[in-house]
Amino acid sequence: MTQRKLRLGAFIMATGHHIAAWRHPGSQADAGINIDHYVQLAQTAERGLFDQVFVADSPGQRHRGDEDSLSRQGRVSYFEPVTLWAALSQVTRHIGFVATASTTYEDPYLLARKFASLDHISKGRAAWNVVTTSADNVHGNFGLAAHPDPAARYARAHEFVEVVKGLWDSFEDDAFVRDASTGVYFDPRKLHALNHVGKHFKVEGPLNIERPPQGHPVIVQAGSSEDGKELAAATAEAIFTAWTSREEAQAFYTDVKGRMAKYGRRPEQLLVLPGISPVIGRTEEEARAKWAELQALIHPSVGLNVLQPFWPHDDLSRWDLDAPPPYYPEPPQGVNSRAHVVIQLARRERFTVRQLYEYLAGARGHWVVVGTPAQIADQMQDWFEHGAADGFNVMPPVLPQSLDEFVDLVVPELQRRGLFRTAYEGRTLRENLGLARPASRYANPAAQAA
Ligand SMILES: Cc1cc2nc3c(=O)[nH]c(=O)nc-3n(C[C@H](O)[C@H](O)[C@H](O)COP(=O)(O)O)c2cc1C
């Protein structure tokens, strides 16, 4: 039996995941709109035999805050994911491309068409990160009076994904004969209109592009609420998630995979990929010094901006950074629950204001592992072998530097342990991830078996 291998995705945040990364000498400050930078990152990830690269996305500016903190944000200008990946697919051969697109703010026909194109352009390496958009300040870009609530967003998301999958099946796999001698280009009996009529969408079809090489681009999901887990159990083939302890990650893993049977799915049809932000040093001291160097680059107004949602009515700029906050708030509405755990910790440990924002701002609450390549590999192995992860979304704190370090130092360590591939197994992203190619809903079962 072949040993189970862990899956690796590179989660690329333009200048790096650390909130102050753009100020670090190892980063590319204009990364968000620097195509050469992304070419380098995709090629580095492919050199490291990563399964996929991924960019997060939101259809609008997310930042709130005063002019000073806004002026110091490094994440206000960046490429649209599908166009970015289409370009990068031409300078790589193996790596997969996960593009984020919103079921709340996009249109299913146009989205199905874009991702089918990306799958053809990349020769079967496309994936869609299905998000309902968590930002509550982008609805104005789409003529809506308010951001729809989570239940409404997820109800729309379920139907959206079904419509998109149906449209991808418009042409059967063998619809195109292109026989110059008979003059027959394709078989119209193998082209199907969807004629979908649902609560949220009415879509005729068919799609104006043939079935994607992967049948369907890989479906990824990134929400961890009850509704998010149901959507993943029903439709996703990979789920991105954020945990900082193995126990929490195990509970999530068991929970989400346990929901799949009622949708007629098996646990291995969904890969659970938590995030890890590795700060790598050749020695432990070097790694700790690197982390401290990054934390010191957080400008106080940027750090305080991270804390502002907890104390919405206070002028935080008057606070002493090196003393604990003057008081602790009751949990305000709309601030995520993970951050509340951090506030409790800060209260218990008597964190100063600076320590508190450094804790929250470092990797936005994701799992940060500071250490040598062997220590980082130990942690990944531990989660992988104890039912907490099928692989990881690697979140380099500084780009390009930290991705190079991971590929040069941690990947060989994982390979030595037999945990990670030494060559790509397949041609498509599905083949590399070990995911089956979905049959068309119109395919003849007898022909399938033959
Ligand atoms: C690794 C990761 C990546 C994510 N990427 C995005 C993204 O690009 N765009 C987005 O709107 N939400 C993104 N999310 C957030 C989720 O899609 C979701 O909106 C959020 O977790 C709130 O949904 P929930 O209430 O179901 O957890 C991401 C979450 C994780 C863990």
Count every beta strand, where a strand is a DSSP E run of 2 or more residues.
13
Q: Give the termini separation.
A: 27 Å
- CATH-scheme architecture: Alpha-Beta Barrel
| Helix-strand pattern | EHEHHEHEHEEEEEHEHEHHHHEHEHHH
The structural class is: alpha/beta
Q: What is the tally of helical segments? A: 15
Hetero groups in this structure are: flavin mononucleotide
Beta-strand content bin: 5-15%
Radius of gyration: 23 Å
Question: What is the number of independent domains?
Answer: 1
Architecture overview:
The chain has helices at 35-47, 67-71, 81-88, 108-121, 150-168, 226-235, 246-258, 284-295, 300-307, 337-349, 353-361, 373-385, 401-416, 429-433, 445-449; strands spanning 7-11, 52-55, 96-102, 126-131, 176-179, 184-186, 196-197, 202-203, 218-221, 238-241, 271-280, 368-371, 391-394. By secondary structure, it is an alpha/beta fold. The protein has a single domain (7-283, 366-449), classed as Alpha-Beta Barrel (TIM Barrel). Strands 1-2-3-4-9-10-11-13 form an 8-stranded parallel barrel, surrounded by 7 helices. A two-stranded antiparallel ribbon has the order 5-6. Strands 7-8 form a two-stranded antiparallel sheet. Strand 5 (176-179) and strand 6 (184-186) form a beta hairpin. Helix 3 (81-88) runs parallel beside helix 4 and helix 5 runs parallel beside helix 6. The chain is globular, with a radius of gyration of 23 Å. The mean pLDDT is 93. Flavin mononucleotide (FMN) binds at residues 56-58, 100, 131-134, 150, 222-225, 227-228, 240-242, 275, 393. This is LLM class flavin-dependent oxidoreductase. Belongs to the NtaA/SnaA/DszA monooxygenase family. InterPro entries: Diverse_substr_monoxygenases, Luciferase-like_dom, Luciferase-like_sf, NTA_MOA. Residues 19-388 form the Luciferase-like domain.
